[in-house]
User: Fold these one by one.
Assistant:
Number 1:
Amino acid sequence: MSLTVVRQASSVARAASRSCAFSTSAIARKDLVQELYLKELKAYKPAPAAKDAHLGAVKAYSLPPVPKPPTLPADLAAELSAYDAVEPVSAAAKDPVTSTEHVSTGADTFLAFLEADEPQEEKHH
């Protein structure tokens, strides 16, 4: 027997003598399980992936269409002068207020409305 085997056997014997009797079998089982695990791990060969496995999950990429540049009108100066000649029309001038009440806006008008007394309803006896 070699010297290293004797040392390993004596260290196992010392560990067994220090603990209960079932610990030596646990050490032997641990080594057996570890050896089986390592053997199976080394023997494992993963199955090669199929070449076309990605076809259902990945869409083909295509570039978006190139945008067309805007075209200028043939007579740009005439169109600009026609645009400048048009009078701007405000929204209030288009749709005059048709109700009889005068609607005014502003903070002072709103505060006056809030400070005004509410009309009291007449109580019928």
Number 2:
Amino acid sequence: MRYVVKLAAILAGLMLMSPATSANGIQPDNPFPRLRFVTSLGNLEIELDRYKAPLTAENFLDYVKAGSYNNTIFHRLVPGFVLQGGGYDENFEAKTIFKKIPNESGNGLKNVYGTIAMARESDPHTATRQFFFNLNDNTSLDPSSKGWGYAVFGWIVSGEETLEKLAALESVPFDEKTLWRDVPKDPPVLIRIEVVPQS
């Protein structure tokens, strides 16, 4: 009898789970989950590609599920090139890193305007949590005979005007406070990332 009661409790718990999440992660049956970026300059939505970038998409969703991107900043802006974020809070303190992931830049997705890709160090397999939006068709970031590229794992599906606002911010070539290059003068905030319910 106690096994029946235990099974009933488990089933009840599963029924109460949000449709956006499950025991296996965020929308495990959705190959193209959508996420809403709520920023200090407006919202935009992206669609991930779990088919072509499964490891990268799941890694990104792990940070989303943990709320780890909430109240981070876009700390790097190179006009006409990239807008990078996800790694630091408003005090420029580094956020917790979960793990390094294999590079999926050879998946066929290109670094064209409006796509989202993973930032990394010079070693190709060092992407963790930082991401960037392509502000142009950046073919130099795609894999080539010269080596690995930067893994694209999604694209903007709405709110392109927000990306344009972010891209139009003033960026300083060298920031004396952080000693970094290409820092927005007033770094915009990624307030949170929400999972868009499946239709």
Number 3:
Amino acid sequence: MLDTKIVSLLTLITCKSYTKAAKQLHLTQPAISHQIKQLEEEFQIKIFHKSRKHLILTPEGEILVKYAHRMMAVYNNTHQALEDAKNNLHRFNIATTPTAGEYYIPQLLAAYCREHSDVHINLITDSINNIYNKLKLYEADFAIIDGRLTSDKYQSILLDTDYLCLIVSPQHALANRSSVNMNELLEESFILRSKEAGTREIFENYLESQRDSIRNYRILIETDSLATIKELVMSNMGVSIMSHNACKEDEQKGRLKTIPITNSTMIREINLVYPKDFQHVDVLLELKKTYSKLQ
């Protein structure tokens, strides 16, 4: 059973108040304080800095909380796995980046579940940095990301390759072009993903490789919502750089035009990323096989 002191610590971190944590756990405030003190004595650390108004973690406290989250995740996963075993069910928590999660990955997972009735999938969409954190804390079993693996703590299986292209409204002056140079876009209004997004990173790296800079272009809006970007581009409010796969359906229905950028090297990988101790690599290989059938 998970140590109740760990539960109290994580609840306190979430509630940011001894009073609120005590109420949520149906304990007294002194009981919560006593459990925190027990943790400090057990590990011989101070968990919080002295402050009357705010709960501010010490460096040692941050380490303890990080591993407390991991213990909680392992406990919950163990409980769920044992329950699933009773029902002959295999459950996977899968994290995915927004571009993958909004378009082609749900179809892949639905197709896989149709072929495997004993599998249940919980899909989590998040930023790439948060996804690596979820893998580290065992909150996700594996991930499907657009981009290359950036950590040697994990392994990956290439699912597909994609490329970034210019997207414009069918009414845009460039809509019928077979390709376009970046210097032709200097006066355009760009609607782009936020700076933390993998798509944005690939685009900026490409510009730098061409001795260019994102600062030379007029950015109208930055957002994490792919739907918002496409809606604004469809309305001819600006142009964007986006995954070609993410625009296929809209292009086929005549809502958007995709235009390759001349001499572009903005190739993007789509990878299955998993911890080295992941026990179901066979599932990932089956997912790759199912994905190939859908193309």
